[in-house]
Amino acid sequence: MLVEVPFSYKLWLKIVENSPDATFFHTPYWFELLKGIKRVTPCYPLIFRYKNCYILFPFGKTRILKGLWSVYESVPVGVYGGPIADGDIKKEMYAKIMNRIEHIFKGNILITLPPSKEIDEKNVFSNSNTYIKALELVREKGWSGVSKGHKYAIRKARKNLYVREANPEEMKDYEKLYISFVKKKRRKRRYTHLFFERIKEIMPKKVVRLWVVLHKEKIIGGLVVAYFKDKAYCIHIASNVEYGDFYPHHLLCWETIIHAAKNGYRFYDFLPSGAYATVDIFKKGFGTTPYPVRSYKGTHPLLNTALRIQRVNIG
């Protein structure tokens, strides 16, 4: 029988540490960063027990509307999510977990699935890819898979720029770059001051690191990378657009790929690009492999009933 148990940080960390499917986005660190992202309300994860197995489900409220029309998403703004456990979750258990979650939340739910799991395909869809670089290739063959255009950009960047790890006090410089970057690109600012403050607080733990790129000792760009188990995740990047011809983003990504490879990580994950096709092309240029991001879509029974009534009335 699937039983919900009281939440505790200690149990949360234990499940994350012991689960083969756990990612950085299942950890309390990402929970803290979510508090600084607009239109997202992070919620403490649900924890269930099935026999001797503990199951954790992280989620957040991603659209705050009244009534049945709220949307709840596992690991909002991240990629990986869905249930994880301190043991193997059998296929039939997923169906029970999803059914239980559909009854808990009064609205639509989107649950990102671990890549290794397959459940009821009629409720699973994929509309984006994440791009992953196998770091063993970097250790063995260096430039393997990197496009000619990216090699040119990185070599040119190295003539004018260099990359180093930032200290926490330099986070304020990076935040200013981000604000300027979104203004120049005419995009909406999604990350608040709190997001950067939380990263600054976490940086000493080395779970999240800020890397900066400099031109003549001036910081002109930065990249936030999260590290968890055998994977490095590229979670935020920004730069001074006036230095675009020096290819700061190419150099930031490549130098952090090299660093992750040298320090024993197995994969470097660029994460999905949203609706930006040019960013997809940028990520492919590093010799990455695309992996579809699969999600389970569920609906509270009351909302299903309301939708059926609405369809009948319209019809």
Q: What order do the helices and strands come in, and which of them pair?
A:
Layout: E1 2-5, H1 9-18, H2 28-34, E2 41-50, E3 53-63, E4 70-73, E5 84-85, H3 91-104, E6 107-112, E7 124-134, H4 135-141, H5 148-160, E8 162-165, H6 171-184, H7 193-202, E9 208-215, E10 218-228, E11 231-239, H8 248-262, E12 267-269, H9 277-284, E13 289-299, H10 301-314
Helix pairs in contact: 2-7, 4-8, 5-8
Question: Could you give a short description of this structure?
Answer:
This protein is 36% helix and 30% strand.
Describe this structure in words.
With 315 residues, the protein is an alpha+beta fold. It has 2 domains: 2-119, Aminopeptidase, CATH 3.40.630; 130-292, Aminopeptidase. 36% of the residues lie in helices and 30% in strands. The protein is built from 10 helices and 13 strands. Strands 1, 2, 3, 4, 5, 6, 7, 8, 9, 10, 11, 12 and 13 form a 13-stranded mixed β-sheet that branches. Helix 2 (28-34) packs antiparallel against helix 7, helix 4 packs across helix 8 (248-262) and helix 5 crosses helix 8. It is globular and about 60 Å long. Mean pLDDT is 84; it is low at 64-68 and 305-315.
